[in-house]
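Ticket reopened. Same input as before:
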Amino acid sequence: MIQRFTHSMVGGPALIWVSVAIVLSALPNLKQIAPLALVFMLFTLVARNVVHGRRLRFPSTILRTSILLIGLGGVYLSTGSLVGAKSGLSALLVLICMKALETNTPRDFQVLCLLSWFLALTGLFFEQELVRSLYIGLICWMVGAALIHFHRDVKQPMRRSFRTGFTLFLHALPVMALLFVFFPRSYGGFRFNFGQSPRGTTGMSNNLEPGSFSALTKNFDDVFRVNFPDGNVPPLAKMYWRGNVLWEGDGFRWSRGPGMYSEPPRHRLLKGVAVRQEITMEPHGDYWLFGMDRIQNFRAEAGFDPGGCMRSSRPVHSTLRYEVTSLPIEKQAYLLTDHKTAALRQPREVSARVKELVVSWRAGGKTDREVSDTALRWLKQEKFRYSLEPGRYEIGSEGFDDFLFNRRVGFCEHYAAAYATLMRVAGIPSRVVIGYLGGEFNPHGRYVIVRQSDAHAWCEIYIDKQGWARVDPTDILAPERVTLGLASYLQQQVSGLSEGDNPANRQFGMKDWFRDLRLVWDNANFQWNLRVLGFDEGAQRQFFANLHLPYGRWHLYAAWGLVGLAPILAALGFWLRRAQRGRPDALVEAYVAFCQTLAAAGMAREANEGPLHFAGRATKSFPENASEIEQITDLYVRSRYARTPLPARDFIQRVRAWRSKTRLKKLVT
Amino acid sequence: MKPEPRKGAMGATGGGRVLVLPNSYTVGLLILLFAMWYAGASQNNQAAFLLCFVIFSVALVSTMHAWVNLRGVQVKSGVISPVFVGENMIVPLHASTHSTRGHYGIRASYALEKSNYVIGDVSAENPARGDLSISALNRGFYPGLEIELSSFYPLGFFTARKTVSIQQEFYIYPKPEGKRPLPASLTEGNERQGILAQGDDFAGVRAYRRGESQRHIDWKAVARNQPMQVKQWAGESDQTLSLDWQELKGLDAEVRLSQLAAWVLQAENRGARYGLALPGLEIQISSGEQHQQECLQALALFRFTPEPA
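Engineering reply: fixed in the latest deploy. New output:
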């Protein structure tokens, strides 16, 4: 049977905008949606809008069923199933477009809009950044405006419906904010995450290789951002972000080494002023987590590795937020045996020249601390240079000797590795710590952005009865690197030496305002991530604790919510009613006054009589005043209805003059 | 017998309390919100939660907009022409507002009828008109009627309703039916059976009376800006009929009234002079549109009280 509709109740801008919203909703998931479904989408949406526009025939039930089967069959054939992230999204798109094709009654349109809202939501499945969220919000606004437009009968410009939609959104803000904060986030069901797309980040690794860190200096990807909830921000030069401790060393190559037990917490006695950090970590697909040196405790799904660094329980595939509390000084009176063994393990081969050098430092029965200081002084005296491009060193002891006695140029990883090796040769337990140093402080949000280019390596030596002490040879050789940060350090170097096309220079040699703009934008993103995207169950518990509210008494809060909702809605209703009442504008008031003078003379205006018709009648009754009546009416019409209305003032003055002077003379018949 | 018409009852009325109630689309909305909540909760996706809350709160706030949208609309009705039971009565509605904002998607319906009439958008500058068609069910005189105004605006997930009393008098006449022939003429006249209405000879004009048929108005005179006059023709049927309740003994009261109404129409069509006799009411013999209306009104209002045996 062919159903024939000569025209549909749905069409025009409302339908076009919903179609646009559907297409825009599909865009963020282009990679997930089967190409066939996209073709289907374009075909059906264009067909539907043409059907209405050209008054063509609606497809029959049989034809519609066939189109639907073709669409779903196509998705099944191209993706192999109808469930799962990819094929599910494609199937959803096909179903929604099918609904659009057959939308004919107000009911259909209402359902189509609901489905479009859901389709828009799928755009948030894989990414929820600020820009993406705003984009999805925009799509939802479009659908809402289309609904508003649809429920207006006299067709007004679409932008009015957009404006009304925005007004609705503004009015909804208080309720929305309350819901966001108080609606329970605890969820008993299983969590699935199809947002897992581990990015192939070239970042930190578990090993230290010569050249691995200098390669990172050209990488400006964000690693993590740190918020200081207590407002206690240490200087950037003191921000050593502890990532991994490398126990096994052989010259320039260092690695984590064999598994060991972590030192028990009672061995680690931390002192100093506590710094609390909220860290938002970008996904990197590995286990490492960072925290400021030295990490006392943390709130994260993670554990301590030997050496007091954090290790996540599962690979970090999506943005991770955790809290860390750090104290600057660590006293460790007792070193575990296997830690001591690992920290003293000698490199495979050490040249005689190196041994000779180290023995000379020990001369005179110096303590470990004194030997360490002597070594640092030696690096300084022998004019070791700190450079981004130190060139390649041979693997093994030849390369090591080449560095120490010939070329004497290196980057932080060379110095950290060399220094730790030298200490071990001297019989002092040592280890290399890799992580980041400093970062960029964003004054707009008072947080620190740490990038790959901030990667750093330093050393720790064990001083008997005192514990692990940090020794950073870079600090001795290039103190500006530590105090100014790498970017500024490089800028200083480059401007002093040559205007080379250093990528780091290009990135950071921007004008101040541009840098500021970038920081403002970064802050907006960070706050969105931290406050909105990060407001999960844990954050909600913390929020409730801060308010001294017991967490989980949802039935009670629901009751309070309903009680609280009533005054909000009542206030809105009251306000809307007042706005609606308004004051009749002065122009209309003046015209009414003009009509009253005529009514007093026996010439009343009918309730539904237009000004021109009324003037026509009035001029007949009062021929002597005819020209004046006509002029006033003309002025009124031009002030009120003209495309570019005349100012109301003129008309009001004219009416005032008319009322004070004019004596109406009725035509005597 | 005839109820007192209310004085000054012609003004527009804003109607009663506006109620904003859920409708079938509300269920659809709840399903969507649940789906969004589930997506947010199962993926621990705060952005999805936020979108869910945005749509929920916008829908919630839309109830207030729906309320205020319908609130300021006033409705009055023009003259409602009398109809017979079973016919459609046309209520010419005139919707207006004093508020500075527009009112959108206004619909009117009569409580007992399913159909909606779309009045459309109403604003102070552009009042809207529309004819609401209601089927006439019971004869009688009505001082007014109650209609329901509703609107889906702004989002359609809630319906705003209010009941408005339209104060506009109207009559519903008994349904004219019955197969009994007209009673015999009281006078022997030149009964010209089967020939309708009036004779051929022009006999002058008289003033138009409200309620009369407009068929014989002298339109040319009206066009010359003279008062409305009715042309009269000589040779009208001089039948004289008495339409008497008592002649229909043994029938049900309503059937009798229907038969009488049918007779009144037939008699008027033939151009006869006729009178109506009901228990306790006697309408003198006369003819013309106004007389016909008078008879039909009497039939509409008639209340039969069985005589005590």
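Chain A has a mean pLDDT of 82. The longest helix of chain A spans residues 554-581. Please confirm and we'll close it.
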